[in-house]
Amino acid sequence: MSPAERLNRISEQGLCVGCGLCQAIAGPDRVRVEMTPNGYERPVIVGDIEHATVDEIYDACPGVRVEGLPAGLVDPSTRHDNVWGAYRRVVRAFASDPDIRHRASTGGVLTALGIYLLQSKRVNFILQVTTSKEFPTGGKRHLSFSQVDVIEASGSRYGPAAPLVELDTVLDCAEPFAFIGKPCDVAAVRNYARHDKRVDELCRYQLVMVCGGYMEPKAMRRFLEEFGVPMDDLSALRYRGFGCPGPTRMETKDGRVVERNYLDFWGEDESAWSLPFRCNVCPDGIGEAADIAAADTWPGGSPTWEGQDDDLGTNALIARTAAGLELMEAAAAAGAITIENDITMCDMSDYQPHQVTKKYMAWARYAGLRASGQLFPQTQRLRIRELALENGLAQNLRQAKRTKKRVQHGRNCEPTPVALVAEDASQ
Ligand SMILES: Cc1cc2nc3c(=O)[nH]c(=O)nc-3n(C[C@H](O)[C@H](O)[C@H](O)COP(=O)(O)OP(=O)(O)OC[C@H]3O[C@@H](n4cnc5c(N)ncnc54)[C@H](O)[C@@H]3O)c2cc1C
Ligand code: SF4
Ligand code: SF4
User: Fold this and answer.
1) Which range of residues forms the domain containing residue 324?
2) Does the predicted TM-score (pTM) go above 0.90?
3) For the chain, which has fewer Cβ within 10 Å, the N-terminal or C-terminal residue?
């Protein structure tokens, strides 16, 4: 198999998360992570690539390698939960500034922590995802140097975004920074730290949102059309925020505004979700390798139609590392965030039942992928085999068979990535 075929296999077998790291590793003259005709950001090979580079990509790519918290960040004061991983403290909290709390995705803690990191001069900038005018359903990588930048980036984007495309040039800046992203993005950063020691020196904090996955692009297109907004007419999209969860707001190029309820978008339970294949088999949507993970706090995992107007937004916040705990407590002492009370991992499981299910099912799903001759994510320190043993044989067999069937039906298949513009030009 050629180096190009090996790299393409990650996308073709539905495992690419579109983080952008392989572009930073190979260089943009060889690999460009960009929008492809199926609506995903995928690595498009544009130059000669060698096996050694592809080996390095396989070692760092979060599509195929996901690990828990690095051993060096665990010490005797670390607590452990078999589902929720390593942690030091878990609380309910929100941004103390009511405007940030209102505008942000949940209670605004990620935004408030980002601003606090800049204002306290702990870091010089935040690497994160902000709104994209070019592809309003997704987001684009951004370096935030000010409070205004971080507030502009607030909110959840349930579409493709590639925050790590230029991680190499970000590291070349040789300045301390923080990263805010999805758990798979942080898995990529931690993996890459094995290859480039500047990551641990310069990336001082890694913060994540707990993540159940984003919307498949074709389902997104269907959703927009259902509400009279063809994808090509869309100029801006806010999935949630300005309330908790707040309305899903679509703006068109001719100035129309269409608003729908968050529950119209995601539905009331996970059976209605339409996720990329890799998200369905994700072994870590809970950000096990991050310093801090932030989540929603709706009991049962979803808002209710009735409760939405009164919900000001409150996050669950898991501090996993010493740095994360110190940051959380310093930000609270400085008045950037307000801690309501400590909670337990049972509360987390109540808020995030879909994450619990995924964690228990991941190992059996990989057995199904393995039996089908497919790639599957290599994991360490995520306890997925241990959790699968609690399921019982019948349940694991059922999951493995279901995954095999999905593979037989091509549910994990994606075309070889080509650039969107290249394909358009050839039509
Ligand atoms: C794809 C996705 C899936 C999610 N799934 C869950 C879930 O299963 N359970 C749950 O509790 N909550 C989920 N959330 C929402 C998440 O809980 C909230 O974003 C989190 O609680 C933080 O809230 P906040 O108010 O502190 O965020 P904010 O202060 O609004 O900050 C949000 C941060 O997320 C970053 N961001 C937004 N979209 C992306 C993206 N696509 N990629 C990388 N970074 C991004 C922004 O740059 C910003 O820094 C999901 C969000 C996303 C984007
Ligand atoms: S997951 Fe990231 S590193 Fe892996 S192939 Fe996709 S864009 Fe590249
Ligand atoms: S579910 Fe997993 S793979 Fe999908 S976006 Fe979230 S963290 Fe990444």
Assistant:
1) 1-427
2) yes
3) C
